[in-house]
Amino acid sequence: MTQSPNPSALPQFSQLTIQGEDAEKFLQGQLTCDVTKLGLSYQAAAICNLKGRIEFGIWIKKQAEKHYDVVISSDCADALQAHLKKFGAFSKFDTSGSIAIYPCVLADAPTFSHKDDHNTAKDTQDWMACSIATGNYWIVAATQGEFQPQELRLHQRGGMDYDKGCYLGQEVIARIYFKSAPKAFLHYVKGTGALPAAGDKLDKIQVVNAIENDNGFTALVVARPEHLAESDLNILDLPAALQVDVARPK
After folding, report:
1. Which of 49, 92, 101, 93 is nearest to 70 (CA)?
2. Which of 11, 78, 93, 209 to pair with 126, CA 20 to 30 A apart?
């Protein structure tokens, strides 16, 4: 059973729309996923910096031809707008202003809704718990630039395409994927004590997201397996697709 956190501490999300003649081409050169394969379901993806680390963690879907909806943590929305304006200055597309969108769980999966019925603390709390249990991390302002997408198992969730061509950070990301592998990567854990914040370090273990429960907290963390083994955290099972080796299949 989870406790009811302060509503002001709950994550908030915003949606913006990108549409126009060059929308697909522009996004293809920005996102880690293959934009040409997007459909009407939200796909987790990322826009990385030149160091190959996630600057913006997003969910994106193709709403219509040359029309894409993007969901992002609200505290990153203004920075994303500035990024799109900077890098898209010579591309033909329009970006809408940000509007609120609500996290919720539908058909046992974390997703988002514009319906006011889902604008509740319980819906958000359920989304957090379901997201953490399924590896559906969310990047906030405090964790921008902290994680490499392979560390967060984004490639195991369809959010990375290593054959699509160039995008921001692609050279570094591809080098790690094809020539090595992250030594620290995403785990689902249970701990005791105070609730850590996103980005906090628990010794050599970094918190991605966490939620409080009656006996402590559950969290997504990035850590080396040997450091987890030495910690007081209990490792829980992620979905089967996220339990496989993060390295490139040989």
Report:
1. 101
2. 78
